[in-house]
Amino acid sequence: LSHLLKHSMAEGLSLIEAAKRAAARLAVDNHVRDGMRVGVGSGSTIVYAAQRLGERVRDEGLKLVCVPTSFQALQLIHENGLVLADLTSVPHLDVAIDGADEIDPALNCIKGGGAAHTQEKLVAYNSSLFVLVADYRKKSGVLGSVWKSGVPVEVLPMAYVCVQRRLADIGGDAKLRIATSGKIGPVVTDNGCFVLDVAFGDINDPEGLEAAINAIPGVISCGLFVGLATYAYFGEADGTVSCMNVLETE
User: Of 91, 99, 120, 198, which sits most exposed with the smallest number of CB within 10 A?
Assistant: First the structure.
């Protein structure tokens, strides 16, 4: 591991980026085997995981089939010489590796900062093993205490105002996510939908809140991922990697 960090630092990566890279590579090395069907997540840390998958295919001759969680993930699969599939042709995966915006001690997490959480959740739900990779800043004692942007909720465009009202009924302050560069108006997901960022404060019952959000007509998917992840790898501030196993926290 220290060799990986020194190599990453030599390539000009910051300490935290080097740790994220080491965490992603360790997750791939520990959980991906020949012949597996692999879900490839989205986000900055997953870039390193996809690179490692490509290296192992080239160096070890692994036969992998990869399913993307976003347009970004699809590009990563192509760029790293991996075999592309989708959930229609491969409806069950052996492992999915993805990032997160906030992770609690039970490995429940908030995802959707990149507006890809619907496809991410589909891939995670249909995988035998779901592994998170992130940096130490994503650790949290309770969801909502670190990630202050709110729970991302993907909604049908025609329903976003109605959904905003219903989210207010369950204690949420929902704001339509607006594009920040290159586009006027709201963020549009890979599925052609809008995203509401919903502030609830500290989320002491993520399972109950997820169910309440999903029960609102017009909601496609929310960014609460409850009871899905088994492992989480964190790049730490000192450049090391730590691993949490949900089976050890129960």
Answer: 91
* 120 carries an active-site annotation: yes
Burial of 70 per CB tally in 10 Å (0-12, 13-18, 19+)? buried
User: Which of the residues 60, 79, 102, 120 is marked catalytic?
Assistant: 120
Q: Are 97 and 133 in contact (CB under 8 A)?
A: yes
Distance CA 201, CA 167 (A): 13
Helix, strand or coil, per DSSP, at residue 84: strand
Residues 6 or more apart from 42 whose CB is under 8 A from it?
69, 70, 72, 73, 98, 99, 114, 116, 120
What is the pTM for the complete model shown? 0.93
Q: Yes or no: say if 114 and 80 are a contact pair by the CB < 8 Å rule.
A: no
